[in-house]
Amino acid sequence: MLDYERMLNRLKTSKFRSRFHLTEKDRAYVREKGLETLAEHALAFVRQRLAPAEIPNDGRQTPMRGHPVFLAQHACACCCRDCLRKWYRVPKGVALTEFQQRCIVELLMRWISHEMEKDSPPQATEEAGQTRDKEPKP
Question: Taking the model in full, what pTM does it have?
Answer without folding.
Answer: 0.82
